[in-house]
């Protein structure tokens, strides 16, 4: 079973930056989607950024231009560079993986493998 482990969360002031990392034990799917998904208190999980095995990327509108998803295949590591952070970015950020059987970007509930999450807190 694949394991995902996030790191890099923390507390920053508005306008600051953080880089999240997710180490994937093994890419068990030939075609896959891997994503950063966040959940704020009292809110549903939200796809922040996603990467497909064919190199396509997708961003939630509110983070486009501020966040960048990338992957180091040699290190089996997914990254999320977050710049110009805002208080509304405060959430637990999860790394999640699923088999890529469709061209459509999966919603959060379709991801099958999840990390434990890392807290990001942005103060004003």
Describe the model.
The protein is mainly β. Helices cover 0% and strands 50% of the residues. It is built from no helices and eleven strands. It has strands spanning 4-7, 10-13, 18-24, 32-39, 46-52, 57-59, 67-72, 77-82, 91-99, 113-114, 118-123. The strands form two sheets. Strands 2, 4, 5, 6, 9, 10 and 11 form a seven-stranded mixed β-sheet that branches. Strands 1-3-8-7 form a four-stranded antiparallel β-sheet, with no helix packed on it. Strand 7 (67-72) and strand 8 (77-82) form a beta hairpin.
Largest sheet: 7 strands, mixed
Radius of gyration: 14 Å
Mean pLDDT: 95
Termini gap: 40 Å
Structural class: mainly beta
Q: How many beta strands in the DSSP annotation?
A: 11
> Strand portion, in percent?
over 45%
Q: Shape, please?
A: globular
Write the element-wise H/E pattern from the N-terminal end onward.
EEEEEEEEEEE
Number of helical segments? 0
Low-confidence spans: none
Residue share in helices? Answer: under 10%
List keywords for this structure.
mainly beta, seven-stranded mixed beta sheet, 11 strands, 124 residues, four-stranded antiparallel beta sheet
Provide a concise account of the structure shown.
With 124 residues, the protein is mostly beta strands. The protein has no helices and eleven strands. Strands 2, 4, 5, 6, 9, 10 and 11 form a seven-stranded mixed sheet that branches.
